[in-house]
Amino acid sequence: MAEDSDQEKTEEPTSKKLSDAAKKGQIARSKELGTMTVLIVSAVALLIYGKGLALGLMEVMKRLFTLNRADAYDTTKMFSVWSDVASAIAGPFIGIFALILVASFIGNIILGGFNFSWEAMAPKLNKLSPMKGFKRMFGPQAAIELVKGILKFGVVATVAFFLLKAYFIDIIHLSIQSVPTNIFDAVELMAWIFLGLTVSLAIIAAVDAPFQKWNHAKQLRMTKQEVKDEYKNQEGDPQVKGRIRRTQREMAQRRMMQDVPEADVVVTNPTHYSVAIKYDTERAGAPIVIAKGIDNMALQIRKIAKGHDVPIIASPMLARSLYYTTEVNDQIPEQLFVAVAQVLAYVFQLKQFQTKKGTKPKPLSKNLPIPPEFSY
Questions:
Q1: Which of 27, 195, 361, 369 could be bridged to 349 by S-S, CB 3.0 to 4.6 A?
Q2: Mean of pLDDT values over 284-304
Q3: What's 13's DSSP letter?
Q4: What pLDDT is recorded for position 127?
Q5: pTM above 0.70, yes or no
């Protein structure tokens, strides 16, 4: 409906809905979580490589502020100086930036996982709409970002105040220390204060990450009708599937009926069940059921059998046993071999008698050897 409201979207998004959204680049993301991860790792990297970086910078300063007569007249000296500078600070800088690079990747996939979408990268003309831009600037999402910004400022400012208060004596003490001890202590002190400030962002991230996940799911919620339509598109209309199944059953039944004239015997109970059996040594080593049915289907099998002079034998227990234990075109169970063999032997002897090539067979026993577990 055109007037569907957000309140009517009460169903959680299906896996297909989430998958389609991910293809468009719509996944839960928390900028605060990514920023916090990068800053914390940066502070840790500074603690790990800070002393080496300070030593490197000291060597660079010594090299750049030291000038002798030979250096002043050597026009190629500048290149060797820059080589010395690079070798002095390259190691610490590479270590710090490598950790930051890994943190920036991990921090942005913690929530929502890794996702790459060409569709999200494609330019969208609707982004150029001034009205939509105005709505983004003054909409609910902008208000949420403003609140988060104020909250971040308040948290970081409060934590910064307490950190400066706690380390105030140590900061003042740096002024009376000698070089290079004060430089190493200053770098370490700065790294710890930086780490304390960044850890404070965990408060914001702990609130923002669950909110972004909830908000993402809320935006993708579906109405009950949308869920039904998606199920129909994926699984097919139940009515159509029902018609297809009925058509398939009818086709299978027609093929089955076409095989009845080839049967050697039809075993009945004699009204509700009919099972057509054929013994073809070339196709299988045991007799097979080529047709079976109950009620109207059983009646049709018997009619076809009579029309093609297929013997019909009444054996209620055997008919039910064959019907429930054997599918069409399957061999009969081994446990029923003896019972079916007696029926087939009687039928073959009866045919011989009818063609005047043998004696009249004895009546078929009413108590065929059927195991109790096969009695129905």
A1: 361
A2: 83
A3: P
A4: 59
A5: no
